[in-house]
Structure formats: structure tokens, C-alpha cells
From TrEMBL:
Annotated catalysed reactions: Hydrolysis of (1->6)-alpha-D-glucosidic linkages in pullulan, amylopectin and glycogen, and in the alpha- and beta-limit dextrins of amylopectin and glycogen
Species in which this protein is naturally found: Caloramator proteoclasticus DSM 10124
Hydrolase keyword on record: yes
Protein name: pullulanase
Transmembrane domains' residue ranges: 7-24, 981-1002
Enzyme class: hydrolase
GO biological process: carbohydrate metabolic process
Keyword Transcription regulation: no
Family: Belongs to the glycosyl hydrolase 13 family.
Alphabetically ordered keywords of this record: Calcium, Glycosidase, Hydrolase, Membrane, Signal, Transmembrane, Transmembrane helix
InterPro entries on file: Carb-bd-like_fold (IPR013784), CBM41_pullulanase (IPR005323), GH (IPR017853), GH13_cat_dom (IPR006047), Glyco_hydro_13_N (IPR004193), Glyco_hydro_b (IPR013780), Ig-like_fold (IPR013783), Ig_E-set (IPR014756)
Classification of source organism: Bacteria, Bacillati, Bacillota, Clostridia, Eubacteriales
Gene3D superfamilies, alphabetized: 2.60.40.1110, Glycosidases, Golgi alpha-mannosidase II, Immunoglobulins
EC number(s) given by UniProt: 3.2.1.41
Residue ranges of domain Glycosyl hydrolase family 13 catalytic in the record: 512-877
Length: 1008
């Protein structure tokens, strides 16, 4: 064949191939570095709910996606990402965050970057092939349903482990494992439910004496598949979140479960099935990083896991120090390869010596001449500063940062960088992570990038950090807990800037009836402090959306930047800062101090957290197996005890106190933080202003921190001048918040008297029978009976007393408020409590609708008598120091309980404890449904200032004769009128003198 013929033949073949590909294109494959996810959902035809998807690549933030397509199976969505992911999380939900399946689910089976799954309603199973829709309706449980749970722990430790089971929407119950099989332990039990349910909640937990919830593995999981006879059988494995309905889906292969770097030359490993202990172990293990293989000095078997010459854990000691900025892998023959994660090394002295940075210049250090960026990333091998032109740019200009001492990287940009948008990128092992600066003072919309700002340009016109309402002692406070959006979104609030910081600055706002709302109303109550639910940047609200969205905000994303959804322009990084400052200044100008609700105990997502991207594993606690602890119930606990985590928390609090002139901090789940961190915060705030309040939830929660170090109620005496929410008096007043139907002192219990009394004395160690947390001062007790968490007081009373009339509920409500506002310590009110706020029985309204959460200003008008009652109690408290004694010594000296019938409490504030003209103040509470008589300290005349109808400082009536009759469900406050003997003596002397003078004048006149 000639060259010309060969060329012609080649051209013909190419032409045919082009046409072939045009008319018969090859099956589409996804370009490398991209991810495609197809989700089919067999929507329940019996519901009209608008289901959509919340999707997040593992380690990234989430985003809403709609089902935009439909086939014979039902609606489906096609989601594409520009990056390559091997694990993507998803939730099927409504915009109100009602979930089809409660737990987070993950797609982790991709082929060529593509995964296709099918979902059935109410079924947690992820199907990678199309299932039969006929099986989508779960079998109904019968009145008695047998359930069998098999549970395997590769650590072999089953002591204390048990199950918490609940029919969906109903109360739960604990079940023990009662037998063993070849798999592990077994629990077989019967669920009694006359109605039958189609879903069972299940939690695996470990109990200890006096603590049923010492530890739990994962969160809520659900049994949704039942056999034809209504029974269910499942298999659970330690470390595996999936509920298995067959052993066929279990992964029973030998593998490394964890490899943890716990010392500069030590790695601890754990396997799921035990290995033989012999002399060849050393030869079976290889440890290396990107550049070299390490030599093993010795291997130590963990004796606690040893059974019959087999074990599950061992410690590997190396001859060299590990390179912490490299990817370190462990290979164990027959158990595979695992990348080592950082464990106890992060808490070690040696790590601190190498990497603790004491400087106070992390973040973007702005001046008009230049801005220096500094980020702490000791385990990174490279770091870059990334500069963006716009908030939604996908790529930015990357600038290599310089490595400095103690794991800090820096870069300086010359010129005025006000408004510069930036992030950091760090190379961890072989991967690059991009993160927002944890110290960023403002952010772009949705907090996905940091912004350099000139803070001097964010101050309002009348900004005066030195001007704030006078305040001296913590017990002088009356705290009013408020959510920014709740305040203003009601149609009749009269507030223009609904759901915004500026809504709390508006004055002259009124209801349709012409009564005050908003700031004017709160000011009129007489409270001293407004505590505002989280107002830092949180993750659960899409700031780009104009649809109504609600969340309490306990899911931090950027700690030092204000939340954008509360600003009038979330796209403007200046607005969120200046408007929050305007709100603070306005509240100060109106005599109100500001407490900021802060959430340093956990973050929205550990994987997606900027901290974790910069220094993976450092900022979050892990258990012995290397898994994140979950005392917060939000999937992670911040390791506040680690020096750089503590440093950030302290500096963040100080920043808010200085830059925003905040007057107090309420620490969410403070019991998960450590004592040293909290005491350091107290000391640093004292340098700024000792009157700044610190209050917190000192609950005793399970986390990887020694009990003696936790900042909880049991350790309150170790944290002077840090106050804890007093749940003893809370539950004493109205009953347990975890049991809707359990009553307290005001609503039917006859055994809550001493709980209430222990709170009345400010939680101090008053006597052998009246004590809360031991040797503390009253400034450490926050007295309350209602907060944003759990049912409102009104709703709780409706649950416990379903047949009570509205007037009877009102009487109990007033009684509860009177107990709170006359008790020693720091009183705390939930916004709207004073007009009997209801959330329609929703006890966890963190993401419910505005209709559930908003302050109902019409209800305020309807219950104005209760509002006036609370106002009177606040006025009484503020006018008489006897209700605000600052020390335990004073309380023991001046507060004395009187003998009373059961469920009646009465006490005197005696010996002129109040320091004014009132001699003895008597406070009495009748929690019974009948009239009760009490004996007063004397038979003198008493002035009543609080009764069942009204409260204040004006005399409502007088009583005498030494006894007081208390109507049912009422509070009384009265004081003994003193006899002024000095005045009487003076009058007698004056009359005598006048008589003497008159007699002599009369005598002289007669002589004349």
C-alpha cells in the first residue's frame, strides 16, 4: 500500500470513529477530581411534606438540595461536586428540620466518582441497588413485640454496657444484656405498647453507680425493619454506627481499628479481633512516614486486653522521634494499614514544649500600613495565605507563608487591607486543607471566608466602651434570657427590623392595643441584664436565603464573628459588626447590661471545623480508641484542657468583652470545659471589669476528662465567682424537665420542699438537710424555673395538671415566679415567662418554626396581670437588699425557716438584714390546694406587699395576731411594722415641755 493510500485509510478510520462517538457516545464517566451523587427517594404518598436534602461532603459544611427529577421510584436529586470525595453525608428533611430518619447517614461506595442510592421512607438502610417499594411500609409492632439485640465489642469490655430503648415519640426504658452467643452479648426483651409503633429508638450506653449515662456510643439510632410476626432482630458492633438486620452485612474481617500517636516516640494500636502474643509481633509491624521507616525499640502488650495468650491492644515504642508534620502509617500483617492519628501526644508536656505559642497576635493583625496574618498549624508541612476578590470566588491567589517558631506560619501584606477576603491552606500529610482563620473578626456570607476589617470603622456614632449601667454585686442582677429573632418576628411586635440586631434598638414600638413591646417593654420590667442566645456566627442558618429560618444557634462556626442572619446585610462584613455594637450601646443607654451566650464546649461539626482542618485532632477530645467523645450530644467535645485550645477560648472571651463591651458570659454546657480554663477566664475578665458576670451550665457530663477537672456543679467550690444554673430548685419548683408529668412544689408534689429550700438559700451549705453543692457563695447559684431549653413553665404546668383551669395554672405560675425572684442568688427569667409563654408543648424548639418560638405580644396583653405581678416582684427585690445577700455567712445569720405544714415553706429575713426600716420580712409559699396557717415570729402588725393577686413595695393589706392564713397556691411577702420608741419618747418629752411652759405662763397670767 502506498503512503497516499495509507493516509487516506487512516483519515477514513478517524472520520468513522468521530461519527461513531457522535451518534453512539460512550457511557459517561465523571472527570477525575469530581463527585456525582444520585439520590432516589420513595416518598410516602400519604404525606404532603416538602422533603428535601441536606448534603455535606465529610469534613465540609452542609447545603440544601431539592429533589428536582422524578422516575417510577419517586423523586430524585443529582448532586455534583467539583472536588473528589469518598464519603458524603446526607439527611432527608423538611425546611423545619423534621427528619425522615433521625440519624446522619453517609454514602461511602463510589465508583469512578459516582454513587447512586435508593431510600425508603422511615428506613435508615441505604440501598445501592433499587429495592422493592412494596417493602417500604414497616410492619406494625404488636401489643407485645419481641426484640433481640446482639452486640459485639472488640475491646471485650461489656461491664456496665446496656441498652436504652424507646418506641418513637414515647418514653424510654433501660434493658440489660442477659446472655452471650458466638457474636458477643445478647439482650432479648418485649416491648409493651397497646397502639403499636413502627419505629424503635436505641442507644448503647455504659452505666456506672449513680450515673446511668456515664458513656454512650453514637447518638440515637432506630430499628425500622420488623419481621412478619412483628418481632425484630439486630446486630450492633462497637465502632460501627449502622444497625444491621443480618450478619451478612457485618464486616468481620481482621483490621486495625485505631493507631494513635500518644507520645513523641510512641504509637498505640488496637485491632477488632485479637492477635497471638509471640516473638514475631515486632516483625509484623511497620511504621513509616512520607520519607522514612522508623525502627521499633520495643512492643508492650496491653495486659487489660489479654485473654488466652491473645490481646487487642499494644504500644509501640520507637527509637526515633516521630515527624509530626508528616503522614505516619502503621502496617500490621494480617490487619492491614492505618494512618496514625494524634492522640495523647496533644495533651503531653513534650508537645507543649515544642509547640505552645504564647504570643497574642494570631489572626489578621491590621493596621493602615500593613496586615500580618498568623496561623498556628504545627502539624502542617506547608501553609498558604489565600486572597479572594469576591465572597463566592472558587479560587484565590495563593501566597506561601513563612514557618516561624512554635508551629506558627505568617505572611505580611503591605498597604491598607481593610475588606480583604482571605483563608488559609495547610498541607497535612499529602492533602491540602482550606480553612477560615479561627481568629477572623468578620466573615463573608455564611462564614465561608474570613475578612480583614478596620474595627475602628465599625463603631456606632455614640460608641462609649466606658459608659455602661452601674452594677456592683452579682446578686443584684435580674437576668432576662432572649433570642434575637424571638423578640421581633411576631406580626404585632411593632418592630421594623424583624429578626435583626437592630430590632432590639427600636423604641416606641407597641402592640395593636397600644402597650409597649421590644426594648421599651423589657426596660419597663426592671430587669438588669439581657442574656442573648448565641450571636456569634453559627452554621445552621443559610444567610443567603430570604425564607423564614430559625435556630437557637448552638452550633458554632466562627467564634469571633457576629452571626450574619441577624444583620440587615449579611453580605457586608462590616454590617454584622457595627449593628451588633449598636445594639449593645443602645441597651447600655437604656440601663440594661448584656450577657453573651457562648458555646465553647463543642462545634457544629468536628470534621468541618476550621480548627480541625488546620490541626487535625488537636482541638477535640477522643476516647481511648481514638473516637470523638460526645458529652455535648452534638458529636464532639472541645478539648479545653489543651493549652492552645484554652488559649483560644480565653482570648475569644476577652475579645468580646473588650471590642463589644459585653457585660457577661453564659457558658453552654460549661461542665464539659475544665476548671483551669474557667478560672483563667475569670481572672482575665477581672482585669477588664470585675463586674462582668460568668454563669454556666455546670452539668456533670461524660467526656474524656477526669471528674476532678470538670467545670461542673460538683466542683463549684473550686471556681469562685462563677455561677451555675441551679437545676435543684428548678426541678423542685415544677418537677423534672425530663418527665413531662412529674410535678414539683407548685403543681402537686409533696416531696419537693427541701429542694426548693436549698435553692432559696442560694445553694449554700446552709445545714445538714439544706445544701446543694457544698461550700459555695450565693453568687454561684443561678435561680430559675424556665429557660429556652425544655418546656416553658406554662407548658409544664399544663402537662402536670391537665384538668386545671386557666386561673389555677396562673396561680401556680405566679407562685413559681415569686419563689425565683425572692430567693438568694442570681434570679433568671426566660423571655415571655412573665406572660405565661407557651411553645405548644415543644420542649426542644431549637429549629422549630417562628410560630412556636416567637414572643407572642398579643399573649402579653392577655396576661398583663401576670406581667405586673412579675414587675412588682422585681421592684421588691431591687428595693430590699434582704433578698440579695452576697455571702453565705449573711444568709446563715439572717435567714431562718419557720415551722410549717408539708408543702408549705416560710422563712424570715430577720434582724434588720435589709438595712432599712423594715424589721422582720416574712416570705411564705403555699404549694398545697388548701388554705394553710403559719405562725408569724411575733404578734405585731405586718404589712403585706405580695399576695396571690399583686406584688410590689406598696402595702396591700395588714395582718396581726401572730398568724397568717395562706390561700392555696400563693406566695406572701410581708414585713413587721416597727414601733419607733425614739419618736414616741421625743413626742412625750416635747409634750411635757410644752405642758411645763404652758403651766408657768398660765400661772404668771393668773398672778397678774
Amino acid at each position: 500500500m502506498t503512503k497516499k493510500k495509507s493516509l487516506a485509510a487512516f483519515t477514513l478510520v478517524v472520520f468513522m470513529l468521530i461519527n461513531l462517538f457522535y451518534f453512539f457516545p460512550p457511557k459517561q464517566t465523571f472527570a477525575q477530581g469530581k463527585t456525582k451523587l444520585i439520590i432516589h427517594y420513595a416518598k410516602d404518598p400519604n404525606t404532603n411534606k416538602d422533603w428535601n436534602l441536606w448534603i455535606w461532603p465529610a469534613g465540609k459544611d452542609g447545603k440544601k438540595y431539592e429533589f428536582t427529577k422524578k422516575d417510577d421510584f419517586g423523586p430524585y436529586a443529582v448532586i455534583e461536586f467539583d472536588e473528589s470525595y469518598d464519603k458524603v453525608g446526607f439527611i432527608v428533611r423538611t425546611d423545619d428540620w423534621e427528619k425522615d430518619v433521625a440519624e446522619d447517614r453517609f454514602v461511602d461506595k463510589f465508583k469512578d466518582g459516582v454513587a447512586e442510592i435508593w431510600l425508603l421512607p422511615g428506613d435508615a438502610e441505604i440501598y445501592y441497588s433499587k429495592p422493592d417499594k412494596k417493602n417500604s411500609t414497616p410492619v406494625k409492632l404488636k401489643e407485645q413485640t419481641k426484640v433481640t439485640v446482639h452486640y459485639y465489642r472488640y475491646d471485650g469490655k461489656y461491664d456496665g454496657w446496656n441498652l436504652w430503648i424507646w418506641p418513637f415519640g414515647k418514653q424510654g426504658k433501660g434493658y440489660n444484656f442477659t446472655g452471650k452467643d458466638s457474636f458477643g452479648v445478647v439482650s432479648t426483651f418485649v416491648i409493651d405498647d397497646t397502639l403499636g409503633v413502627d419505629k424503635l429508638g436505641i442507644i448503647t450506653r455504659r452505666s456506672e453507680p449513680n450515673n446511668d449515662w456515664a458513656e454512650k456510643e453514637f447518638g440515637d439510632r432506630f430499628i425500622t425493619k420488623f419481621k412478619e410476626d412483628g418481632s425484630a432482630e439486630i446486630w450492633l458492633m462497637q465502632g460501627d454506627e449502622r444497625v444491621h438486620y443480618s450478619m451478612d452485612t457485618l464486616d468481620l474481617t481482621q483490621k486495625l481499628v485505631s493507631a494513635s500517636i500518644d507520645g513523641i516516640s510512641t504509637i498505640n494500636i488496637e485491632v477488632n479481633f485479637p492477635f497471638e502474643i509471640n516473638d514475631t509481633l515486632k516483625d509484623k509491624i511497620t511504621i513509616k512516614d512520607n520519607e522514612k521507616t522508623y525502627t521499633i525499640k520495643e512492643i508492650k502488650v496491653d495486659e487489660s486486653t489479654k485473654v488466652d495468650n491473645k490481646a487487642r491492644r499494644l504500644s509501640i515504642v520507637l527509637n526515633e522521634k516521630l515527624a509530626l508534620d508528616k503522614t505516619i502509617t502503621v502496617e500490621f500483617k494480617d490487619y492491614g494499614i492505618k494512618t496514625a492519628t494524634f492522640g495523647q501526644i496533644f495533651s503531653s508536656k513534650e508537645f507543649d514544649e515544642l509547640y505552645f505559642y504564647s504570643g497574642n497576635d494570631l489572626g489578621a493583625n491590621y493596621s493602615k500600613e500593613k496586615t500580618t496574618f498568623k496561623v498556628w498549624a504545627p502539624t502542617a508541612s506547608e501553609a498558604k495565605l489565600v486572597i479572594y476578590s469576591k465572597w463566592d470566588d472558587k479560587q484565590g491567589k495563593e501566597l506561601a507563608m513563612k514557618k516561624e517558631e512554635k508551629g506558627v506560619w505568617s505572611y505580611t501584606l503591605d498597604g491598607d487591607q481593610n475588606g480583604t477576603i482571605y483563608t488559609y491552606k495547610v498541607k497535612i500529610g499529602d492533602s491540602w486543607n482550606e480553612a477560615v482563620d479561627p481568629y477572623a473578626k468578620s466573615v463573608t456570607v455564611n462564614g465561608d471566608k474570613g475578612v480583614v476589617i478596620d474595627l475602628s470603622k465599625t463603631n456606632p456614632e455614640k460608641w462609649n466602651p466606658k459608659s455602661k449601667p452601674q452594677f456592683k454585686n452579682p446578686v443584684d442582677a435580674v437576668i432576662y434570657e432572649l433570642h434575637i429573632r424571638d423578640l421581633s418576628v411576631h406580626p404585632n411586635s411593632g418592630i421594623k427590623n424583624k429578626g435583626k440586631f437592630l430590632g432590639l434598638t427600636e423604641t416606641g414600638t407597641k402592640t395593636k392595643k397600644g402597650t409597649p413591646t421590644g426594648l421599651d417593654y423589657i426596660k419597663s420590667l426592671g430587669v438588669t441584664h439581657i442574656e442573648i442566645l448565641p450571636m456569634f456566627d453559627f452554621a445552621s442558618i443559610d444567610e443567603t436565603s430570604t425564607k423564614p429560618q430559625f435556630n437557637w444557634g448552638y452550633d458554632p462556626k466562627n467564634y469571633n464573628a457576629p452571626e450574619g442572619s441577624y444583620s440587615t446585610d449579611p453580605y457586608n462584613p462590616i454590617s454584622r459588626v457595627s449593628e451588633l455594637k449598636t445594639m449593645v450601646q443602645t441597651l447600655h443607654d437604656n440601663g440594661l447590661r448584656v450577657i453573651m451566650d457562648v458555646v465553647y464546649n463543642h462545634m457544629y461539626s468536628a470534621e468541618a471545623a476550621n480548627f480541625n482542618k488546620l490541626v487535625p485532632g488537636y482541638f477535640f477530645r477522643t476516647d481511648a480508641s481514638g473516637k470523638l467523645t460526645n458529652g455535648s450530644g452534638c458529636g464532639n467535645d472541645v478539648a479545653s484542657e489543651r493549652s492552645m485550645a484554652r488559649k483560644f477560648i480565653v482570648e475569644s472571651v476577652v475579645y468580646w468583652a473588650k471590642e463589644y463591651n459585653v457585660d457577661g458570659f453564659r457558658f453552654d454546657l460549661m461542665g464539659l470545659l475544665d476548671i483551669e480554663t474557667m478560672n483563667t477566664i475569670r481572672a482575665e475578665l477581672d482585669k477588664i471589669d470585675p463586674s462582668i458576670l460568668i454563669i454556666g451550665e455546670g452539668w456533670n457530663l461524660s467526656t474524656a476528662l477526669d471528674d476532678s477537672l470538670k467545670a461542673n456543679q460538683k466542683n463549684a467550690a473550686k471556681m469562685p465567682r462563677i455561677a451555675h444554673f441551679n437545676d435543684t430548685i428548678r426541678d423542685g419548683i415544677k418537677g423534672s424537665v425530663f418527665n413531662h408529668n412529674e410535678p414539683g412544689f407548685v403543681n402537686g408534689s409533696r416531696s419537693s420542699q427541701f429542694k426548693v429550700m436549698s435553692g432559696i438559700v442560694g445553694g449554700i451549705d446552709y445545714s445538714s438537710g439544706i445544701s446543694t453543692w457544698g461550700n459555695i457563695e450565693p453568687v454561684q447559684s443561678v435561680v430559675y424555673c424556665e429557660a429556652h431549653d425544655n418546656n416553658t413553665l406554662y407548658d409544664k404546668l399544663k402537662f402536670t395538671n391537665p384538668n386545671a383551669s386557666e386561673e389555677e395554672i396562673k396561680a401556680m405560675h405566679k407562685l413559681a415566679g415569686a419563689i425565683v425572684l425572692t430567693s438568694q442568688g442570681i434570679p433568671f427569667l426566660h423571655a415571655g415567662q412573665e406572660f405565661m409563654r407557651t411553645k405548644q408543648g415543644n420542649d426542644n424548639s431549637y429549629n422549630a418554626s417562628d410560630e412556636i418560638n416567637r414572643l407572642d405580644w398579643d399573649r402579653k396583653d392577655q396576661n398583663i396581670d401576670v406581667v405586673e405581678y412579675y414587675k412588682g416582684l422585681i421592684e421588691l427585690r431591687k428595693n430590699h437588699p434582704a433578698f440579695r445577700m452576697p455571702t453565705a455567712e449573711m444568709i446563715k445569720k439572717h435567714l431562718e425557716f419557720l415551722d410549717t405544714p408539708t408543702n408549705v415553706i416560710a422563712y424570715t429575713l430577720k434582724d434588720n438584714a435589709n438595712g432599712d426600716k423594715w424589721k422582720n420580712i416574712v416570705v411564705a409559699f403555699n404549694g398545697t390546694e388548701k388554705e394553710q396557717k403559719i405562725t408569724l415570729p411575733s404578734r405585731g402588725k405586718y404589712c403585706v406587699v405580695v399576695n396571690g393577686q399583686k406584688a410590689g413595695v406598696k402595702t396591700l393589706e395588714t395582718v396581726s395576731g401572730g398568724t397568717l392564713t395562706l390561700p392555696p397556691k400563693t406566695a406572701y411577702v410581708l414585713y413587721e411594722k416597727t414601733t419607733n420608741y425614739a419618736l414616741i419618747s421625743a413626742v412625750v418629752i416635747l409634750v411635757g415641755m410644752l405642758g411645763f411652759v404652758g403651766y408657768h405662763m398660765y400661772s404668771k397670767l393668773n398672778k397678774k
